[in-house]
Write a structure and sequence with these properties.
Elements: H1 2-24, H2 31-42, H3 64-67, H4 74-89, E1 116-123, E2 126-132, E3 138-141, E4 146-147, E5 152-157, E6 161-169, E7 175-183
Antiparallel strand pairs: 1-2, 2-3, 4-5, 5-6, 6-7
């Protein structure tokens, strides 16, 4: 029986504590808060500006014949105009161009800076050079052969270097010649 009395008295103490806490919150100590809320409610209400009036945009129909290709940059358009003017001034002639119809030689598959001159040969007064490609193969070249990816044609072979002339685009739709050398590597 004493165990039952302890449980009941523990519950009674809990109930009394809760009642005491709740009675402490019921005082009139929030008068200043209530006055602040009443003041805010009675103050003048702000006016919200109306939304701006929607003005529909006029439809636009794009015509390529009037404006050209919209995906071509102005730089490309200027380059094409310069090329057309250059061809008109030259009487429609093509000017300098690489021979795109000829059969490509094996050493034209590699950039010129990846090729290495490893030696020279001379037979009956005719010089030839030995050039090693990045895949390790050594090829014999003579004047007139092509090297590199810029249509470089061999013009002379010396004991220390091979001289060639490349044909490269000038950035305006035409081609220019550029000298290049391939020196021996020891």
């Amino acid at each position: 029986m004493s165990i039952m009395w302890k449980l009941k008295s523990g519950n009674l103490v809990s109930i009394l504590m809760i009642a005491t806490f709740l009675s402490g919150c019921s005082g009139g100590q929030f008068n200043d808060l209530q006055m602040f809320i009443d003041d805010i409610k009675s103050s003048s209400k702000g006016r919200i500006e109306p939304l701006p009036e929607f003005v529909p945009v006029e439809n636009f129909t794009y015509s390529m014949s009037d404006f050209g290709d919209p995906f071509t940059s102005w730089e490309t358009k200027a380059m094409m105009a310069a090329k057309a003017e250059q061809q008109a001034n030259a009487g429609g002639g093509g000017g300098l161009q690489p021979d795109l119809g000829r059969r490509r030689e094996p050493l034209e598959a590699f950039p010129l800076d990846t090729l290495r001159m490893v030696g020279t040969l001379e037979k009956s007064g005719n010089s030839s050079a030995l050039v090693q490609s990045p895949d390790g193969l050594v090829s014999r070249i003579v004047v007139g052969n092509y090297l590199g990816q810029n249509y470089g044609q061999v013009v002379s072979i010396g004991s220390e270097e091979v001289e060639l002339v490349e044909i490269v685009p000038d950035g305006l739709g035409s081609w220019i010649q550029r000298p290049a050398t391939l020196a021996i590597v020891e």
